Amino acid sequence: MARILNSAKRLFIFLGKSLFALLEVMVFALIPKPQKNVAGEIVLITGSGSGLGRLLALKFARLGSVLVLWDVSQEGNEETCKMALEAGATRVYAYTCDCSRKEEVYRVADQVKKEVGDVSILINNAGIVTGKKFLDCPDELMEKSFDVNFKAHLWTYKAFLPAMIANDHGHLVCISSSAGLIGVNGLADYCASKFAAFGFAESVFMETFAKKQNGIKTTIVCPFFIKTGMFDGCTTGCPYLLPILEPEYAVRKTVEAILQEKPYLYMPRFIYFIVFLKSFLPSKLGMLLAEYMGVFNSMDGFSGHKKKD
């Protein structure tokens, strides 16, 4: 009898919490969710020397955050540092770091802790893409894809998450990709690394939730191709529903998601529908949809190995 009562109690608690969560979603669908203040927060961005990382740095500079910029290119990173100061940042720290090297990540992380303080917002943005068919892609490039696009997230989390937990305050941001949700022809290694990054970030999100570490937030961003130069030559078969994104739009939506503490952000919105369809459509029908959307030939004009870190 006691077991039945306990099961009933757990069921009612679950239903009550679920109802509250649904009501919260409905309210914030009508009323914009309040945005948190990130002035003074220490924001670390990997791959900040160009592209999306640079634009994210400029956005957080205008919001009054303390910036920690990591990039493998010293020249590009210093240029971002200069631009961030011009945009209004009062404290900007630029570090040359190859995120594919675990020892280097740990070494530079220790330097950041000593010279700047505890990172409170970690944005894992650095990434590379080969754009080669699986059997045409050299082993070293595939390994590099995993080292930068996925493994670097392991090392940065290990370096900065303990302090976030100790302070009960932190935000983990994973810049994954729509290619981390749906396989894309010609992007086997990239998709695999982005699927891994997504799965890792979501798993740590579940860990923090299970441990009731409510001060640790997670945002996982999955955009379609962005016009940063990384995917030059790529096309879309349906530009109205699945457009190649403007960098400014992608950055604006990403920062909004961080400030509103959204766990997930897919861009454009049609990605949500595609993921929903993927879960129940027969595989043959899914392939026909992918063909119609241009997924099979979207990489035909891509010129090869590029990076954004």
How would you characterize this protein structure?
By secondary structure, the protein is of the alpha/beta class. It has one domain: NAD(P)-binding Rossmann-like Domain (Rossmann fold, 3-Layer(aba) Sandwich). 50% of the residues lie in helices and 14% in strands. It is built from 9 helices and 9 strands. The protein has a 7-stranded parallel β-sheet, sandwiched between helices. α2 packs across α7 (247-259). It is globular and about 55 Å long. It starts with a helix and ends with a strand. Pfam families: adh_short. Belongs to the short-chain dehydrogenases/reductases (SDR) family. One of its GO terms (biological process) is retinal metabolic process.
List strands and helices in order, with pairings:
Layout: H1 2-30, E1 42-46, H2 51-62, E2 66-71, H3 74-86, E3 92-96, H4 102-115, E4 121-124, E5 128-129, H5 139-167, E6 170-175, H6 188-210, E7 216-223, H7 247-259, E8 264-267, H8 270-278, H9 283-293, E9 306-307
Helix pairs in contact: 2-3, 2-7, 4-5, 5-6
State the main characteristics.
globular, oxidoreductase, two-stranded antiparallel sheet, 309 residues, membrane, seven-stranded parallel beta sheet, Rossmann fold, NAD
Work out the radius of gyration: 20 Å
The percent range for strand residues is: 5-15%
Q: If helices are DSSP runs of H or I spanning 4 or more residues, what is the number of helices?
A: 9
Category from helices, strands and their pairing: alpha/beta
Mean pLDDT across all amino acids: 87
CATH architecture: 3-Layer(aba) Sandwich
Low-confidence stretches: none
Order of helices and strands: HEHEHEHEEHEHEHEHHE
State the strand order across the main sheet. Answer: 3-2-1-4-6-7-8
Shape: globular
Provide the CATH topology.
Rossmann fold
Transmembrane segments: 12-32
Protein name: Epidermal retinol dehydrogenase 2 isoform X3
GO molecular function: all-trans-retinol dehydrogenase (NAD+) activity
Keywords: Membrane, NAD, Oxidoreductase, Transmembrane, Transmembrane helix
